[in-house]
Amino acid sequence: MAGLLVLMTALLWHCSLAAAPVPVRFAEGSLHGFLVLSTQKEDLIASGDLLQVGRDGEVESRLVFRFKDGSVFDETVVFTQRNVFTLQRYRLVQRGPAFPEDTEITLERASGKYHVKTKAHKDGREKVLDGTLDLPLDAYNGMVLTVVKNLSGGAGETVHMVAFTPAPKLIKLELAPAGEQKILVGGSEKTATHYVLKPILGIWLKLFASLLGRMPPDNHAWIVTADVPAFVMFEGPLYMKGPVWRIELTSPRWPDRNRSRPSTQ
Questions:
Q1: Which of 252, 236, 255 has the alpha carbon at shortest distance from 244?
Q2: Shortest CA distance to 234 belongs to which of 224, 220, 223, 244?
Q3: Is 254 within a domain?
Q4: Rg of the chain's alpha carbons, rounded to an integer?
Q5: Which residue in 29, 129, 198, 203 has the most C-beta neighbors within 10 A?
Q6: pLDDT tens-digit profile of 137-196?
Q7: 193-252: per-residue pLDDT in tens?
Q8: Secondary structure in 3-state letters for 31-98
């Protein structure tokens, strides 16, 4: 088993760093989006916010989910969009019973430094990993949906992601269109493009990942691509070997539906 782990790690790292970043077709700006997180059976498990703001030539995008059981998923990415999208800093916090362990991850392009801290729920044991990583220009942790929105019509792309297991492993991620689907927005019909987000493992890595029980699933995203692209839905796990959850947009509503809305007079 130890030999398999060593070989698997080597295979995960065996990928080219000479990759082109994704061009900016639609620049990101200030945004506050309201989201819900649910199971595939449509059971609501968390409410969330997507908060995005530009400052000093950078864009900070933060995705926060607060679970019914008190758990928190908090992901922040800072990136630039000067002709191409470039990740600059990344931070992820997962804590609470919704996750197998509490996790805090930071990653910085300028220095290449990463920091991973985990704490087991069972015994409270903490593990800390620090090191440096040479990030390719198309490393897009926390930015995949932004990148997908900027793909030209019907086109696919291959980018890099850093998978923390908890040690960082650089993998390729294929972003491939997989057809279209009709959706309803109010009383209007729109067309959403379905994208499959598939980790590229290679034949041997697939074999060893299968033997170790760590075959990563495909993720899925739906984007309205007409005129200005818009996010519709995402399906996939939020952590290693986690269940498939669904992220969707939602709209504010008054707490008491039987009460009339506040008067403007």
A1: 236
A2: 220
A3: no
A4: 19
A5: 198
A6: 999 999 999 999 999 877 899 999 999 988 998 989 999 999 999 999 888 999 999 999
A7: 999 999 887 554 554 455 455 566 789 999 998 889 999 999 999 988 899 999 999 998
A8: EEEEEEEEECCCCEEEEEEEEEEEECCEEEEEEEEEECCCCEEEEEEEEEEECEEEEEEEEEEEECCC
Q: What are the CA-CA distances from residue 99 to residues 75, 118, 142, 216 (Å)?
A: 14, 11, 18, 17
Nearest Cα to Cα of residue 38 among 232, 183, 234: 234
The residue segments making up the domain with residue 223 are 2-249
**Cα dihedral 147→248→172→134 (10° resolution):** 70
Q: Are strands 101-108 and 31-39 parallel, antiparallel or unpaired?
A: unpaired
Could you tell me if residue 136 is inside a domain?
yes
Quote the number of domains for the chain.
1
In the numeric block, which tokens belong to residue 261? 């809305």
Whether residue 256 lies inside any domain: the answer is no
In a domain, 265, yes or no: no
Nearest alpha-carbon partner for 67 in 33, 43, 51: 43
Report how far residue 170's alpha carbon sits from residue 133's, in angstroms, rounded to the nearest whole number.
Answer: 9
